[in-house]
Write a structure and sequence with these properties.
- With about 475 residues, this protein is of the alpha+beta class.
- The chain contains 9 helices and 29 strands.
- A 6-stranded antiparallel sheet has the order 24-29-25-26-27-28. A 5-stranded antiparallel sheet has the order 6-5-4-1-7, with no helix packed on it. Strands 13-12-11-8-14 form a 5-stranded antiparallel sheet, with no helix packed on it.
- The chain is elongated, with a radius of gyration of 33 Å.
Length: about 475
């Protein structure tokens, strides 16, 4: 009898043990969640300004440790951190944290402003596995001074369009290359390398001492070429300015007389040059009063306006006009005009009035300095400049160059007209006509006018968008 009771006791204890194990396993089974946005930032602390320690893409699974207010403490790729709860899809309840998250030491790192939107555009790259592993570092190397200046690369790195491990690659940069760092943000450095500018992992850079002798390599040669190009461009601009001054001095007053426009559509310009702003346009047989001559231009008064017209586009006798022709016929006749007038006539028929106003307004800011992140005349970056100009006309476009590529409607490069938005790799500008565009180029040049045939912009041209009609 005593032996039977012992066996029953053992069975009862075994059953209780099995049930306890089941309850224990269920209680400690890992709760998971799926990322519901393109990219979710995993941060060091429960704060949108805290350091990003890892990123997870849409559909990926993260292990949830506990809930802390509006945040989940998670584990992903061996890294622990916090994700906002509205960025994950979780089907099970999660226990609240019993202790508050640690307070971040303000001296730990130098923070820069971060976009409030937690999600980022899901850029793709060919191969970013190695860089993604490198980006799991939670803080910058404190032994480095986070300041602007020249740095050298400690390994082969990729220059990124945006400070993300899966951002588009601009170019490959070899080890020991010299780059100019403009800003540091969460272990990423905004750097210039030759004519290219983008983001590099800051952990792959070493500060170059000012007294150090720079190696005479391809980077130095590129810098010398850039300096030569800048000097050449400055000389060209100075020469153009001298030419304008010489042209101004050739204006000679004449006895006022009435003349007539002898082309279907003629542009009256503010100054005696094709690059000048448009005052108005006149139809064939319109009478104007000529008051002066300036080289191949005539200064005229018409309808309360004063401006300049090519003398060859005027005649002393009133030409005959027909009213039965369609606008398309008139356009064809203008396009078949003489070579001297062909470029100007083409520009007149392809440019909208509002587009010309956009160009005229943009030209007012020539010479303004370039400031990264700048959106006002006190300092523009490229997309900040384009956004500011169009905003003046009540037109809202996106903030960054890559995002502005989705504004307006597509227009072929062969069909560009004044006022069109030009998008390059990591850059933006506004087309002025005659193969030129205006843009906030870089810190050394500011807002300038550049030829669209420039080899750098030919190579990096992406698309054009029609913002105004």
């Amino acid at each position: 009898m005593k032996i039977k009771l012992n066996i029953k006791s053992i069975l009862v204890i075994a059953i209780i043990g099995v049930l306890s194990l089941l309850v224990f396993n269920k209680s400690f089974a890992a709760v998971t969640g799926k990322v519901s946005v393109d990219t979710a930032n995993i941060r060091k602390l429960t704060d949108t300004t805290s350091t990003i320690v890892e990123q997870a893409s849409k559909g990926e699974t993260v292990q949830i440790i506990e809930k802390d207010g509006d945040w989940y403490k998670v584990k992903y790729n061996g890294v622990q951190g916090y994700v906002r709860s509205d960025l994950l899809e979780v089907n099970e309840s999660v226990a609240e944290a019993t202790t508050p998250a640690p307070v971040e030491d303000k001296k730990e790192e130098t923070k820069t402003e971060e976009p409030k939107n937690e999600t980022t555009q899901n850029y793709t790259s060919v191969n970013n596995t190695e860089e993604k592993q490198e980006n799991t570092a939670t803080e910058n190397d404190n032994s480095k001074s986070i300041i602007e200046g020249m740095y050298s690369t400690t390994a082969d790195v990729k220059l990124k369009l945006v400070p993300l491990v899966n951002g588009n690659n601009i170019k490959d940069i070899s080890k020991d290359a010299t780059v100019n760092v403009l800003e540091v943000y969460n272990n990423w450095a905004l750097a210039e390398c030759g004519m290219d500018r983008g983001w590099l992992l800051y952990s792959k850079l070493n500060k170059v001492e000012e007294t150090a002798q720079q190696p005479e390599n391809n980077q130095e040669e590129k810098k010398e070429e850039e300096k030569t190009e800048e000097k050449t461009e400055e000389k060209v601009e100075e020469k153009a300015e001298e030419t304008k001054q010489e042209e101004k001095s050739t204006e000679v007053a004449v006895q006022e007389k009435t003349m007539y426009v002898n082309w279907d559509v003629v542009i009256v310009r503010e100054k005696a040059t094709k690059a000048s702003d448009v005052v108005t346009s006149l139809n064939k047989a319109t009478a104007v009063t000529v008051t002066a001559k300036d080289g191949e231009w005539s200064k005229v008064k018409v309808n309360g306006n004063v401006g300049y017209i090519k003398t060859t586009l005027l005649s002393e006798t009133k030409p005959e006009t027909t009213t039965s022709r369609s606008l398309e016929q008139e356009r064809q006749e203008v396009q078949s005009a003489t070579q001297q007038n062909q470029t100007e006539a083409s520009a007149q028929t392809s440019s909208s009035g509002l587009g010309q106003q956009v160009c005229a307004y943009a030209r007012q800011y020539l010479g303004c300095k370039y400031v990264y992140g700048g959106t006002t005349p006190s300092g523009f970056d490229c997309s900040g400049f384009t956004q500011y100009v169009f905003k003046h006309f009540g037109i809202t476009i996106n903030r960054t160059a890559s995002a502005q590529a989705s504004n307006g409607t597509y227009v072929a490069k062969s069909d560009l007209q004044a006022g069109d938005l030009l998008i390059f790799s990591g850059h933006a500008g506004i087309y002025l006509g005659d193969g030129t565009f205006i843009h906030a180029a870089n810190p050394s040049k500011g807002v300038i006018v550049t030829s669209l045939s420039d080899s750098y912009y030919v190579k990096n041209y992406i698309t054009a968008r029609r913002i105004v009609n």
